[in-house]
């Protein structure tokens, strides 16, 4: 009984901060949709469609991020600094490719991505400036997720939570100022929400990186070791990452098909789906914490 209680205590100690961070991370993308609500159904629907593109982006890189936990936890238990650095390096490359690919599409051809999800020109026109700004945040977000997962796997679960709280506060404050044009700032509408998201991503990543470099830990990230992986390590990494990646991609594609169908309905249906995704995200944030925590 004592061992069981100890196990539950350790599990909750790890899982609860992760659950809160997941909630805040999910909330950050929802704050835009919620605060845009006062601007009317068209803006809500347009930003909701943009959030669905972000969800697809999430599914494309999440498999690599989840696979990294398997290796981080294993190497952490073995005090293998080189293994952690190699895992960080190969995961960074894979996630960066996804991040820059989506960022390029969003910045250069946002109307293409939006046109896949909806045939409503008004939503595409509202969403284009939003996607062009948010696209710059995508590479920053994948790097922040990777650092967060490394910190979680090395028994530093509180720092990512604190950084997420700061990022969310920045996002909320800038949204309030720029969406509605408060304190003399221009009224930017949906584009203002995108600026808040980008600023939040910059602050979150900066704080995480500073903590990663300055925190005391028996295993440290070293640039000299990050890209010294060989063919055998790459094969093992991809063999473990592939099933997780496929699972996330199939889920993402399934959600995308649903969203495409909804995106070709009327304005009210699209806005209602955007509101539903907010509620769905809150539930998923807590459930995901228990499948993503490192080995105890």
TrEMBL record:
The chain crosses the membrane at residues 7-24, 44-76, 88-110, 130-149, 161-181, 193-213, 234-258, 270-290. The keyword Ion transport does not apply. Keywords: Membrane, Transmembrane, Transmembrane helix, Transport. InterPro entries: MATE_fam, MATE_MdtK. It holds the Pfam family MatE. NCBIfam families: matE (TIGR00797). Belongs to the multi antimicrobial extrusion (MATE) (TC 2.A.66.1) family. Multidrug efflux pump. This is Probable multidrug resistance protein NorM. It comes from Coprococcus ammoniilyticus. The lineage of its organism: Bacteria, Bacillati, Bacillota, Clostridia, Lachnospirales.
């Amino acid at each position: 009984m004592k061992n069981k209680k100890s196990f539950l205590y350790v599990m909750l100690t790890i899982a609860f901060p992760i659950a809160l961070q997941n909630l805040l991370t999910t909330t950050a993308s929802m704050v835009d949709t919620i605060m845009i609500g006062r601007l009317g159904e068209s803006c809500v629907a347009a930003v909701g469609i943009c959030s669905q593109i972000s969800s697809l982006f999430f599914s494309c890189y999440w498999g690599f991020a989840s696979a990294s936990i398997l290796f981080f936890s294993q190497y952490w238990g073995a005090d293998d600094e080189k293994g952690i650095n190699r895992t960080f390096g190969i995961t960074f490359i894979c996630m960066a490719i996804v991040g820059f690919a989506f960022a390029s599409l969003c910045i250069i051809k946002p109307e293409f991505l939006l046109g896949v999800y909806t045939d409503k020109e008004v939503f595409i026109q509202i969403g284009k400036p939003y996607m062009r700004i948010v696209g710059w945040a995508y590479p920053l977000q994948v790097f922040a997720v990777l650092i967060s997962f490394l910190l979680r796997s090395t028994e530093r679960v509180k720092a990512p939570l604190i950084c997420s709280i700061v990022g969310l506060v920045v996002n909320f404050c800038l949204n309030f100022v720029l969406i509605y044009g408060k304190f003399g700032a221009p009224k930017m509408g949906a584009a203002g929400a995108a600026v808040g998201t980008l600023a939040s991503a910059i602050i979150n990543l900066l704080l995480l990186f500073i903590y990663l470099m300055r925190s005391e830990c028996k295993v440290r990230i070293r640039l000299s070791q990050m890209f010294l992986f060989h063919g055998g390590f790459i094969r093992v990494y991809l063999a473990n990452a592939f099933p997780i990646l496929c699972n996330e991609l199939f889920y993402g594609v399934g959600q995308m098909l649903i969203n495409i169908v909804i995106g070709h309905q009327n304005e009210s249906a699209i806005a209602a789906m955007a509101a539903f995704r907010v509620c769905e995200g809150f539930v998923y944030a807590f459930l995901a914490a228990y499948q993503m925590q490192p080995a105890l």
